[in-house]
Design goal:
The protein is built from two helices and six strands. By secondary structure, it is α+β, with helices and mostly antiparallel strands. Helix 1 packs parallel to helix 2. It holds the Pfam family Ribonuc_L-PSP. It comes from Siansivirga zeaxanthinifaciens CC-SAMT-1. GO terms for molecular function: deaminase activity.
Amino acid sequence: MKKIITTPKAPAPIGPYNQAVLTGNTLYTSGQIAINPETGELVLSDIKTETTQVMQNLKAVLEAAGMTFENVIKSSIFISNMDDFTSINEIYGSYFNDETAPARETVQVARLPKNVNVEISVIAIK
Protein backbone atom coordinates (compact mmCIF):
# COMPACT_ATOMS: atom_id res chain seq x y z
CA MET A 1 0.00 0.00 0.00
CA LYS A 2 1.26 3.48 -0.78
CA LYS A 3 1.06 6.56 1.39
CA ILE A 4 1.28 10.03 -0.13
CA ILE A 5 3.74 12.31 1.67
CA THR A 6 3.16 16.07 1.52
CA THR A 7 4.45 19.04 3.44
CA PRO A 8 3.94 22.81 3.12
CA LYS A 9 7.68 23.14 3.89
CA ALA A 10 8.47 22.03 0.32
CA PRO A 11 7.04 23.38 -2.94
CA ALA A 12 3.63 22.15 -4.01
CA PRO A 13 3.72 19.95 -7.11
CA ILE A 14 3.45 21.79 -10.42
CA GLY A 15 1.83 18.84 -12.19
CA PRO A 16 -0.03 15.57 -11.64
CA TYR A 17 2.35 14.09 -9.06
CA ASN A 18 3.03 14.18 -5.30
CA GLN A 19 6.07 15.34 -3.34
CA ALA A 20 6.78 11.74 -2.32
CA VAL A 21 5.28 8.29 -2.03
CA LEU A 22 6.02 5.92 0.85
CA THR A 23 5.49 2.23 0.18
CA GLY A 24 6.45 -0.12 2.97
CA ASN A 25 9.68 1.32 4.36
CA THR A 26 10.77 2.90 1.06
CA LEU A 27 10.27 6.56 0.19
CA TYR A 28 10.41 7.78 -3.41
CA THR A 29 10.64 11.55 -3.75
CA SER A 30 9.72 13.50 -6.81
CA GLY A 31 12.45 15.64 -8.28
CA GLN A 32 12.88 18.90 -6.44
CA ILE A 33 13.83 22.16 -8.07
CA ALA A 34 14.75 25.46 -6.45
CA ILE A 35 11.29 26.80 -5.64
CA ASN A 36 11.04 28.63 -2.34
CA PRO A 37 8.00 27.00 -0.67
CA GLU A 38 7.12 30.19 1.23
CA THR A 39 6.98 32.45 -1.81
CA GLY A 40 6.53 30.06 -4.72
CA GLU A 41 9.38 31.89 -6.47
CA LEU A 42 12.40 30.28 -8.11
CA VAL A 43 15.76 30.75 -6.37
CA LEU A 44 18.22 31.07 -9.24
CA SER A 45 20.72 33.73 -8.11
CA ASP A 46 23.67 31.33 -8.47
CA ILE A 47 24.14 27.56 -8.74
CA LYS A 48 25.18 27.07 -5.10
CA THR A 49 22.15 28.96 -3.79
CA GLU A 50 19.92 27.09 -6.23
CA THR A 51 21.31 23.71 -5.14
CA THR A 52 20.92 24.64 -1.47
CA GLN A 53 17.21 25.37 -2.04
CA VAL A 54 16.80 22.03 -3.82
CA MET A 55 18.44 20.20 -0.91
CA GLN A 56 16.35 22.09 1.66
CA ASN A 57 13.22 21.10 -0.25
CA LEU A 58 14.33 17.46 -0.20
CA LYS A 59 15.11 17.74 3.51
CA ALA A 60 11.56 18.96 4.19
CA VAL A 61 10.05 16.05 2.26
CA LEU A 62 12.29 13.54 4.04
CA GLU A 63 11.33 15.03 7.42
CA ALA A 64 7.63 14.81 6.53
CA ALA A 65 8.19 11.07 6.12
CA GLY A 66 10.10 10.82 9.41
CA MET A 67 13.47 10.48 7.70
CA THR A 68 16.74 12.35 7.20
CA PHE A 69 19.48 12.31 4.57
CA GLU A 70 20.98 9.36 6.49
CA ASN A 71 18.04 7.29 5.21
CA VAL A 72 18.81 8.08 1.55
CA ILE A 73 20.12 5.11 -0.42
CA LYS A 74 19.95 6.50 -3.99
CA SER A 75 20.06 9.98 -5.53
CA SER A 76 19.49 11.17 -9.07
CA ILE A 77 20.86 14.55 -10.09
CA PHE A 78 19.90 16.20 -13.35
CA ILE A 79 21.84 19.29 -14.39
CA SER A 80 21.60 21.52 -17.42
CA ASN A 81 25.34 22.27 -17.58
CA MET A 82 28.05 19.80 -16.52
CA ASP A 83 30.32 22.79 -15.87
CA ASP A 84 28.21 23.35 -12.71
CA PHE A 85 28.99 19.85 -11.39
CA THR A 86 31.71 20.90 -8.93
CA SER A 87 29.56 23.58 -7.29
CA ILE A 88 26.48 21.34 -7.17
CA ASN A 89 28.55 18.45 -5.76
CA GLU A 90 30.00 20.70 -3.04
CA ILE A 91 26.55 21.69 -1.76
CA TYR A 92 25.02 18.23 -2.26
CA GLY A 93 27.93 16.59 -0.43
CA SER A 94 27.51 18.83 2.60
CA TYR A 95 24.19 17.08 3.35
CA PHE A 96 25.74 13.60 3.53
CA ASN A 97 28.37 11.73 5.54
CA ASP A 98 31.04 10.51 3.11
CA GLU A 99 31.14 7.05 4.71
CA THR A 100 27.38 6.50 4.36
CA ALA A 101 26.59 8.57 1.26
CA PRO A 102 24.04 7.05 -1.12
CA ALA A 103 24.55 5.62 -4.57
CA ARG A 104 24.06 8.32 -7.21
CA GLU A 105 24.00 9.26 -10.84
CA THR A 106 24.47 12.72 -12.27
CA VAL A 107 23.20 13.37 -15.77
CA GLN A 108 23.37 16.45 -17.97
CA VAL A 109 20.06 17.10 -19.68
CA ALA A 110 18.96 19.49 -22.40
CA ARG A 111 16.31 21.22 -20.31
CA LEU A 112 14.65 21.05 -16.90
CA PRO A 113 11.23 22.26 -15.67
CA LYS A 114 10.93 26.04 -15.44
CA ASN A 115 14.38 26.26 -17.06
CA VAL A 116 16.17 25.58 -13.76
CA ASN A 117 19.77 24.39 -13.63
CA VAL A 118 19.46 21.43 -11.25
CA GLU A 119 16.82 18.89 -10.16
CA ILE A 120 17.40 16.17 -7.58
CA SER A 121 15.32 13.20 -6.43
CA VAL A 122 16.09 10.55 -3.82
CA ILE A 123 15.03 7.12 -2.63
CA ALA A 124 15.20 6.53 1.12
CA ILE A 125 14.54 3.59 3.44
CA LYS A 126 13.52 3.63 7.12
